[in-house]
Amino acid sequence: MIGPMTSAAATRTSEQTWTIAQVAEEFGVTHRTVRHYEDLGLISPERRGTQRVYRRRDRTRLGLILRGKRLGFPLEEIRTIIDLFDAPRGRRTQLEYVLGQIDERRADLDQRLKDVQDAIAELGEFERRCREDLDRLA
Amino acid sequence: MIGPMTSAAATRTSEQTWTIAQVAEEFGVTHRTVRHYEDLGLISPERRGTQRVYRRRDRTRLGLILRGKRLGFPLEEIRTIIDLFDAPRGRRTQLEYVLGQIDERRADLDQRLKDVQDAIAELGEFERRCREDLDRLA
DNA sequence: CTTGACGTTGACGTAAACGTAAAGCATGAT
DNA sequence: ATCATGCTTTACGTTTACGTCAACGTCAAG
């Protein structure tokens, strides 16, 4: 079967769902990787019987996970970060805790931003020198 | 002994050098880490007899390595990148190869830049919602 | 000349992040 | 009914990036 699972006449108004093969394909990872993230508690798809059923929420989290990986964060840290987005924010103390965590994360990301910008700048400078060398050769 | 090695009356005009303990301390890593990078060929300090002698060049490379790590690049890839900076650029074909590599690297870094910017933006949006919640609680 | 303090080379250990079978269900198609 | 597909768990293997001894060299200070 091709395309999202719609279980025929059943849950049409309900949310769209995907199989593990579909999300793995979509995000360019293996099913093993997806299940590994579940083992670590980064995603928790429902079960239709024994099979995993992925919803939009799971795909969103998977996207956050992979972006976090591209930025070099370890999976455990990524888990605490994306859990933060779903954390309860009812009480004032909880909200203040969350806001504190946000500041920590931002400091981390600011460092990454500086790193990337510096790297890009140096690469540009290096390219400029290379082009100079190339011109001199002409 | 404290401070950089100056070998008393000898090489004063020569370059300043450091011991492994000094560079490790300076960059906040262990000596084991520094030697590991050497094993992988990311740095290659000279030897004064049996001991390693680090110069400015080695410290520069070490800085590049650690920044690459913060950006999530594997050490092997980092090696190819920083080797690029020291690559011979005498012939035109070599220069064109280097310029091609630069473009690949830049594409990678551009993706990282977008990732960081997106993450920071989402974090800001999330913080805004949290502050709204906090205001409503007041 | 012996003691530290620091440096060196193995060599094995480990944690993270999966890879890779192996072997068993479940379900639609023939 | 069986057969192929796809999903499942279990479990051991692998790679990366070091940690952690162990055992030895070396050199200035007491």
TrEMBL record, chains A, B:
GO terms for molecular function: DNA binding; DNA-binding transcription factor activity. This is Transcriptional regulator. Pfam families: MerR_1. The lineage of its organism: Bacteria, Bacillati, Actinomycetota, Actinomycetes, Micrococcales. Keywords: DNA-binding. InterPro entries: DNA-bd_dom_put_sf, MerR-type_HTH_dom, MerR_fam. Residues 17-84 form the HTH merR-type domain. It comes from Humibacillus xanthopallidus.
